[in-house]
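step 4 of 6: structure.
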Amino acid sequence: MRKAAAIIISSVFFAILLASFYQIPQTDYGEKEYYYQNPINGSYANESVPSHYIANTKNETGAVNAVTAIVVEYRGFDTLGEVTVLFTAATGVSFLLYKVRGGKKRTEANLILKEGSKLVLPFILLTGAYIFIHGHLTPGGGFPGGAVIASGFLLMMLSYPKFFMKERAVSVTESMAGITFAFIGLLGLVFASSFLQNFLPLGNVGYLLSAGIIPVIYIAIGFKVGSELSSIVDKIKEVQK
Amino acid sequence: MIELTIISWIMAFLVIGAAIYAIETKDLISAAIAAGVVSLVVSIMFLILQAPDVAITEASIGAGLTMAIFVYAIGKTGRWEE
Amino acid sequence: MWPEYIAVAALISIGLYGVMAKKNLMKIFIALSLMETGVNLLLITIGYIPGGTAPIENGNFAKYVDPLPQALVLTAIVIGLSVTALALTLLIWYHSKTGTLEYRRGMRW
């Protein structure tokens, strides 16, 4: 009875979604539907928002990657909210699973897995660090870099059953990175005119030390996301039944 | 670009097949692995749609960390659905 | 109609069927994770311009893809993982208290 009703409702929803996707217009930037019309006096704006971001990223921020400039410079306050949500989730997981880790007997892994993971782990950590340091030049940034670092620690947890993360080091790293992010925002309030504004010199385009505060903030976010995701995975693995 | 269109159609059928298998099977570990396959194929579709940052993020988080915590949590509770 | 739109509609519908018709809580959470993946794919498919390239400044190309939905989805993927982790924590707690994983016990619908 429930299965038949669920199939009928899902099929109706599928048809409604396809019918509404048929109406999405597929236009380019230069066409008339993409521009904003002012609701008061009916005049069209000079340019649309995405074409402004693409045309002026290199001059205003000094970064080459447009997605990185949007996440840190143009919409930087939403990144602060996202870091808060991630911190709340990691605290919640840590708070609810407080049982001590037990002496359950675990099986040893294969020889190939043990020796291979010892060989590959430094390169995985190096790749993750490269991704979040060069965030303004190549695709990537803070969030994928932290996720790759957490994947490296997950590989170590799968190969050696006695491996665990030291709680004190992880929590100190995470707190220091979060404080650095908020502190740089407050420095922007002191030296420039508003919160999270760029106050460092822009430099030459294409060099590593350029684009103002973007590399500094992404290094802080990379450390924070990497340590938080590792601690979440470690807590769910180690809870006693 | 006729090759990209054919690859997009093959990826769409893989997504639909893996999603139906993930819902209908009785073995929970197979369902978690099928959800990981869906994340991996969606990451390839992100690359065809010219979005490299999102492809790296979805591949490492969706196919690596989400599947890992699902398998650990299934190990703490029961494996079969009934 | 593009193949990506059909994949998005199928993912959201299959996830909705999984949430409505299943009794096991772990299967319901897997279906919720599938729905989140579908919505992220929809956001990036809308921002695609035919003939454009990745939004990194390059001297050879003239047309770029819309960068604004990609910045939104980059955040949404990480938030989806953290919500799933918190939900699985509550599920382990529920299993250690009552001993079973069924959600609709004793209800004759």
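step 5 of 6: annotate
 - Chain A has one domain: 63-238.
 - The longest helix of chain A spans residues 167-191.
step 6 of 6: archive
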